[in-house]
């Protein structure tokens, strides 16, 4: 019976979502990005680091669909591999932010008092160091690299999820069903796990999609500055950095990575907006 009810709810969720253009477009772009990243693990048109100097700076053609760079490397192959690296960095960074921020926010809402004060002051302190500044400090100590970029972006995401979780949880702690659970003798930890987190899960899922898009941008920015993914591993931001001196000679070297970043961020934002409209009951009532 439980599996049948779950299947019915999923079917209703899909039927409601099909009518939302934002959700469908965002989902299609996101799935395409994931498919390209997974495909790059087993196949690319050319080896991503294969140098072919005689074929350098070729425009898009049947042999090289997106052309070649200054070393004769296939641009399409490197963009495909760059998608893989961007997803890996962003996914782990957002996972760090949610994995630490959500428990901290839930703890602050459940315990209040000095616990809440400590958590929120920690958030304020962390917000004072944006991802870029954190990456500069971390790389000055440990050197540039994807791991340090993940740490910097992840640290910046912690207060985002902590504040969101705390604000949403505080509103639920005043609801009748939570008060009833407290009267029944449930502890704060059990109430948080059984009632608070399940009721704010949709809000957290939407925020994850938004933060994932921001993490993609942050990773590209850090790689552009030489603080993120390091050569020979391809990165969209690093490709933009290498293309800036060749803008008039081969503008496609900047156009295609830029389009990849733009399409990915736009798709994730549309997905987040669509999920918010679909999961928020207040917005559903307005339709």
From TrEMBL:
<dbReference type="InterPro" id="IPR000515">
    <property type="entry name" value="MetI-like"/>
</dbReference>
<dbReference type="GO" id="GO:0055085">
    <property type="term" value="P:transmembrane transport"/>
</dbReference>
<feature type="transmembrane region" description="Helical">
    <location>
        <begin position="196"/>
        <end position="226"/>
    </location>
</feature>
<keyword id="KW-0812">Transmembrane</keyword>
<dbReference type="GO" id="GO:0005886">
    <property type="term" value="C:plasma membrane"/>
</dbReference>
<keyword id="KW-0472">Membrane</keyword>
<keyword id="KW-1133">Transmembrane helix</keyword>
<comment type="similarity">
    <text>Belongs to the binding-protein-dependent transport system permease family.</text>
</comment>
<feature type="domain" description="ABC transmembrane type-1">
    <location>
        <begin position="83"/>
        <end position="272"/>
    </location>
</feature>
<feature type="transmembrane region" description="Helical">
    <location>
        <begin position="246"/>
        <end position="272"/>
    </location>
</feature>
<dbReference type="InterPro" id="IPR035906">
    <property type="entry name" value="MetI-like_sf"/>
</dbReference>
<feature type="transmembrane region" description="Helical">
    <location>
        <begin position="87"/>
        <end position="110"/>
    </location>
</feature>
<feature type="transmembrane region" description="Helical">
    <location>
        <begin position="21"/>
        <end position="43"/>
    </location>
</feature>
<dbReference type="InterPro" id="IPR050366">
    <property type="entry name" value="BP-dependent_transpt_permease"/>
</dbReference>
<dbReference type="Pfam" id="PF00528">
    <property type="entry name" value="BPD_transp_1"/>
</dbReference>
<keyword id="KW-1003">Cell membrane</keyword>
<feature type="transmembrane region" description="Helical">
    <location>
        <begin position="122"/>
        <end position="141"/>
    </location>
</feature>
<keyword id="KW-0813">Transport</keyword>
<protein>
    <submittedName>
        <fullName>ABC transporter permease</fullName>
    </submittedName>
</protein>
